[in-house]
Automatic annotation (TrEMBL):
<dbReference type="InterPro" id="IPR003702">
    <property type="entry name" value="ActCoA_hydro_N"/>
</dbReference>
<dbReference type="GO" id="GO:0008775">
    <property type="term" value="F:acetate CoA-transferase activity"/>
</dbReference>
<dbReference type="GO" id="GO:0006083">
    <property type="term" value="P:acetate metabolic process"/>
</dbReference>
<comment type="similarity">
    <text>Belongs to the acetyl-CoA hydrolase/transferase family.</text>
</comment>
<protein>
    <recommendedName>
        <fullName>Probable butyrate:acetyl-CoA coenzyme A-transferase</fullName>
        <ecNumber>2.8.3.-</ecNumber>
    </recommendedName>
</protein>
<keyword id="KW-0963">Cytoplasm</keyword>
<keyword id="KW-0443">Lipid metabolism</keyword>
<feature type="binding site">
    <location>
        <position position="342"/>
    </location>
    <ligand>
        <name>CoA</name>
    </ligand>
</feature>
<keyword id="KW-0276">Fatty acid metabolism</keyword>
<dbReference type="GO" id="GO:0006084">
    <property type="term" value="P:acetyl-CoA metabolic process"/>
</dbReference>
<dbReference type="GO" id="GO:0019605">
    <property type="term" value="P:butyrate metabolic process"/>
</dbReference>
<dbReference type="InterPro" id="IPR026888">
    <property type="entry name" value="AcetylCoA_hyd_C"/>
</dbReference>
<feature type="domain" description="Acetyl-CoA hydrolase/transferase N-terminal">
    <location>
        <begin position="7"/>
        <end position="191"/>
    </location>
</feature>
<comment type="function">
    <text>Coenzyme A-transferase that converts butyrate to butyryl-CoA.</text>
</comment>
<dbReference type="InterPro" id="IPR038460">
    <property type="entry name" value="AcetylCoA_hyd_C_sf"/>
</dbReference>
<dbReference type="Pfam" id="PF02550">
    <property type="entry name" value="AcetylCoA_hydro"/>
</dbReference>
<comment type="pathway">
    <text>Lipid metabolism; butanoate metabolism.</text>
</comment>
Length: 447
């Protein structure tokens, strides 16, 4: 029997006993996505009438947060969120949760240098023979959170894969205050779905921009999935992966022999990532796999690191873009949809890469649910209150189903002309009129 087994037995607790470590006025951290606790969240919610002024940071929730459900008036628990899932978005819209703006690469440093953490509650994989708990599918900022926390409670979930580093992927039992055994609670999954014919048309243009040996970052959604599936079915060779979010598109590329990481100058032969969300099949691929290297997000998203890869291709979605090149990927007016995330990190890093491209891809129109009409995603100016995720000075390549244009170095009239050229044809006349009114239209591109 090892000393770590003895220590484990001394620290293991029932959920109701572990959450007694939380005191009124505390700052509590739940981590992100798959790191968020389930049984501890329920146990803490049950203390609603015993506590006051509990501030809880969370992110990208894929299960209801019981502290919010049990306290809709926020009398005890004030929930805050780094990045919105659909569930979080609904709560934020109801005023039951607040958003925390960030540039994703800065999250660990904010914990190290600015934020208080009284209690961290983080889901982990079972302890190994050396006394380490693995952060599994979400490395991200967990090391920074747990190092800053005065007390750390780990929720051990047997379903959590063991992800190899890299670095920052584990915590030792000697740094843990309490252990709660959650049994085997399935990890949240998201299905791998490719897009429709419009996404396919955009993806075809993007894939043509990817050379052999390129290193890739992909966002989440139907369009990036379509790009990944198309790459997997292509004849591209020796691609690399350096991405904040590990998604099934990369697993598909790997299975088809496209993803080797063989030519990467940094983390050679390794696929680097910060957190993972996808299918159970992908989670099984991650488990104990030395091909993959998990890192904290301040490494993965560091533009200096990204810039060291030649032909780094970053592919992300956005909500809207205006004729000045301001890109919003997180809100529509004051309505928070997701979060800043790491898009600006990769926009900057990919531009610095020799031969690199940051590509923001969007469908030219969307269906307005209130009016039932299609509206342009390319707008004269962003709606009042809309958050700018990527400033116009950092806008690089933009793609719709009508073309791919490079905004870097372009003047205001050139940007307007380029963006109008890839807008939906039915929307171009109105956009030209708006550009003329704003004095950023030199001549008509109509033929």
């Amino acid at each position: 029997m090892s000393q770590w087994t003895d220590m484990y037995r001394q620290k293991v607790m029932l959920p109701k006993d572990a959450v007694m470590l939380v005191q009124s006025g505390d700052w509590v951290d739940y981590g992100m996505a798959t790191s968020q606790p389930i049984v501890l969240d329920q146990a803490l919610a049950e203390r609603k009438n015993e506590l006051t002024d509990i501030k809880v940071r969370t992110s990208f929730s894929f299960a209801p947060r019981q502290i919010v459900e049990a306290d809709p008036e926020r009398q005890t628990f004030t929930a805050m969120n780094w990045h919105m899932s659909g569930y979080d978005r609904k709560l934020c819209g109801q005023g039951r949760m607040n958003f925390i703006p960030m540039c994703y690469r800065n999250e660990p440093s904010m914990y190290r240098n600015i934020l208080d953490v009284d209690v961290a509650m983080i889901t982990v994989a079972p302890m190994d023979k050396n006394g380490f708990f693995n952060f599994g599918l979400n490395i991200s900022a967990n090391e920074a959170i747990t190092k800053k926390a005065k007390k750390v409670i780990v929720e051990v979930n047997e379903a959590m894969p063991r992800a190899l580093g890299g670095r920052g992927e584990h915590i030792h039992i000697s740094d843990v205050t309490a252990i709660v055994e959650a049994g085997n609670i399935p990890m949240p999954t998201i299905p791998f779905k490719t897009g429709d014919e419009i996404d396919t048309k955009i993806a075809e243009m993007i894939v043509k921009e990817i050379p052999n040996g390129a290193t890739l970052q992909l966002g989440v959604g139907g369009l990036p999935n379509t790009v990944g599936a198309m790459i997997a079915d292509s004849d591209l060779k020796d691609l690399g992966m350096h991405t904040e979010m590990l998604v099934d598109a990369f697993y598909l590329m790997y299975k088809e022999g496209r993803l080797t990481n063989r030519l990467k100058p940094v983390d050679k032969d390794k696929a680097a990532w910060a957190f993972a969300l996808g299918s159970q099949e992908m989670y099984d691929w991650i488990d104990d796999n030395p091909f993959l290297a998990g890192y904290p997000v301040d490494y993965v998203n560091d533009p200096f690191i990204i810039s060291q890869f030649d032909n780094f291709i970053s592919i992300n979605n956005c909500v809207d873009i205006d004729l000045f090149g301001q890109i919003s990927s997180e809100s529509s007016g004051t309505h928070q949809i997701s979060g800043s995330g790491g898009q600006l990190d990769f926009t900057d890093g990919a531009y610095r890469s020799r031969g690199g491209k940051s590509i923001i891809a969007l469908r030219s129109t969307f269906r307005n649910k209130k009016t039932g009409k299609d509206e342009s995603r390319i707008k004269p100016t962003l709606l009042a209150g809309t958050i700018v995720t990527d400033p116009r000075s950092q806008a690089h390549w933009v793609a719709t189903e009508y073309g791919l244009v490079n905004l870097m170095g372009a003047s205001t009239w050139e940007r307007a002309e380029k963006l109008i050229s890839i807008a939906h044809p039915d929307c171009r006349e109105a956009l030209i009129g708006a550009a003329e009114d704003m004095k950023i239209w030199r001549y008509s591109n109509k033929r």
